[in-house]
Structures are given as C-alpha cells and as structure tokens.
C-alpha cells in the first residue's frame, strides 16, 4: 500500500512539474503587453479588442492573456475568458480579500503609465482564486493588462 501511495505521488509530481516549468513569467507578461501596445499604436484599439476577443495566440496563451479597459471610465473593453464583464465598470468591485485592485490599475496607469498590481483572481486554467500580479501599461486612452499567477 505504501508503495502504491509513493507511486501515485511520483506520478502526480511528474505531471505537475512540466506545468510549473512552463508557467509564464513576469518577462512574458511584459512582452505580451508591449506587443499589445505596439498593435494599438499601429492599428488602433479596435484591432486589439478583436485580437483579444478572438483569443489570438499572440495575446492569449492559457493563463497568460491580455485584457483591456478604458482609462477614464474603467469600463472593460475586452476580456478573452470572461466576456460577461465586457462593457461593465467594475472599478470598485473588490477581489476576494477586499482590495479594489481595478481602481489601483487605473490609478497606476494614469499616474505612472505602467507598473505592477497584485490581487486575487480566478485562474482560467485551475478554476481557483489565486494570487496574481499584473503588468499594466497605458496606451492612448486604454490600459492593457497581462498577469501571472503566483505559484
């Protein structure tokens, strides 16, 4: 019985290890947002929204993805995994710990142009609420965001 439990634990570790090894990094989040900024500057925010909504592989890669909100109103303009929030102002809706992180995202974007914000969010891969850090950057009148889940 002990041998069976050890074998099961080893099998689980072998399955989980590649997923952790391939987990997106802060550099991946920054690179994705910078690609998005370049697209918005070249082709406009409507094209960026189309790419996000179509889950274009340059902007949506599993748990790493870009979403976009209006800088002035806070309204979500595009989200690849949660289209029900598009068109809504969730600026003052808190995360699971009560943090109004969307307000912080807008404040950082308005004041500094770019930066990082930490909060709790549902991971589309695991389906669980997990700690997340998101890189944000303002481009024109929108904010692009791409975050990674902290393991």
Automatic annotation (TrEMBL):
Coiled coil: none
SMART domains in the cross-refs: Cache_2
Membrane topology: Multi-pass membrane protein
Localization terms from the record: Cell membrane
GO CC annotation terms, alphabetical: plasma membrane
Residues making up the signal peptide according to the UniProt record: 1-21
Pfam family, one: sCache_2
Main location: membrane
Keyword Iron-sulfur (UniProt): no
Keywords (A to Z) from UniProt: Cell membrane, Membrane, Signal, Transmembrane, Transmembrane helix
Start and end residues of each Single Cache domain: 26-103
Keyword hit for DNA damage: no
Protein name: Cache type 2 domain-containing protein
Organism: Telluria aromaticivorans
